[in-house]
Amino acid sequence: MSVAEDILLSAWVTGLLALTTTAVLLLVSPPLAWWIAQTRSRWRPLVEAFVALPLVLPPTVLGFYLLLALAPGGPFGAIAQALGGAPLAFTFTGLVIGSIIYSLPFVTGPLSAAYRTTDGQLLEAAASLGASPTTRFLRLVLPLHRKALVAAGVLGFAHTVGEFGIVLMIGGNIPGETRVLSIALFDRVEMLDYAGAHAIAALLLAFAVIVLTFTYRWLRT
Amino acid sequence: MGGGQGRVMRPTPGHLVVAVVALVCGAASSAAPLRIAVASNFQHAFETVRTSLDAPADPTYGSTGLLYAQIMQGRTFDAFLSADRERPLKLVAQGRAFGPQVYARGSLVLLVNEDSPGPHWLTTDRRVALANPQTAPYGRAARQALDALGASPRLINGLNVAQAFHFAASGAANGAFVALAQVTAQGIAEKRYWLLPDRLHAPIEQVAVVMHGEREAEAQAWLAQLLGRDAQSLIGSAGYRVSGDVAGVDDSRD
Fold first, then answer.
1. CATH of the domain spanning A3-117+150-220, picked from 1.10.10.10, 1.10.3720.10, 1.10.150.120, 3.40.1350.10
2. For a tag site, which of A161, B74, B141, B191 has the least CB within 10 Å?
3. Residues of A with CB below 8 A from B63's CB?
4. Nearest to B157 among A70, A89, A172 (CB)
5. pTM tops 0.90, yes or no
6. Which runs of E-coded beta strand occur in chain A?
7. What is the domain partition of chain A in residue ranges?
8. Which tens digits make up the pLDDT trace of B156-184?
9. Which residues 117-176 of B are in CB contact (within 8 Å) with A?
């Protein structure tokens, strides 16, 4: 495999991983963020803490626990095998699970902050017109904060592209399956292939600058 | 109030400067341990042998490739215990190091979590971890052995033998190609690993060099002791074979 092929294949895996992760997070995060923004439950701080954990914990901590959980003897691995699948460690699916946890606060956080600003009178008006809580969320809250939703999605995508520590711990560096760009970059550095390393680093840097610039510009309009 | 001011000495910026200067001078004095870059497969053996040597040594463990890259980027070490022979010899060729000698010869084993290990164990449905063949000598030896055997299990690439070992130990992989020294260090039962015959891969000669620098004489003496009989016998019981001069290397110093 040539250097260019290696980089392209790793870019493909990275893009697919970020897309899949973002898609799942855009389904999971809005209801979770709405619950956090609205609830008076005494469990809210605990749930918020768990969502925010990846912001604070070294990725290696998550990676270590995930590897044990995804291994054939671990809980996730056992479930996957019971369902007829292969063990999840060192697979693309395993990386998706890791990335969802890792990027969860980057999607849920901005959303719950935005949802907290929802006009209470609007919600009351909708309720008095007979809209159920689900309808209020789907027809009122989601459209009201669609910009926050897009921004959160972009942030989740970009953050997954930049993932390294967890992938290092649970990926196994398999070309075409778990070798993402950040890992390929690390490999190139170890091989003293600085030309290849520069290519990957520049690619990731350009991606981050472009995505963030366009997002900030779009948020202002 | 007043009058309550005792003669307590307060720290001033001047005191701080004195303290910092004292610290820096202390660190630079020859009493400081030698800084040794050590290939991660040798970690356990190094911990065993370091206390038997006269000069204190401060190891930095890492994959040979990463340590080499750090040296090339200007990180200072007094000696480099590599897992291969290519990189130390490159440092010698560049005039950064001298006195290459084999301090240990590695043996490759296949460690397994189930069934009995051997060539037949390497079936396509098994997931076997190995060190990165492109950067790690044990990974390259594993790759050569797989090619020689015509086996093609699913390969999990660890950064180095330490991670390959961890992938198998955690149960996430079915087995791993690791160093005999690692299974020795962990006290793993013999029935769980297979010592690969020498004909399946090129020899794993681990070469040490002294880095040119202010402390090269000290480092040279330290390395000579590492190659001495006592230290070598400790290294031998840690899972390596005995040392010797590097074949084909013009070592004028010897």
1. 1.10.3720.10
2. B74
3. 190
4. A172
5. no
6. none
7. 3-117+150-220
8. 999 888 899 999 999 999 999 999 999 99
9. 127, 129, 132, 134-135, 155-159, 167, 170-173
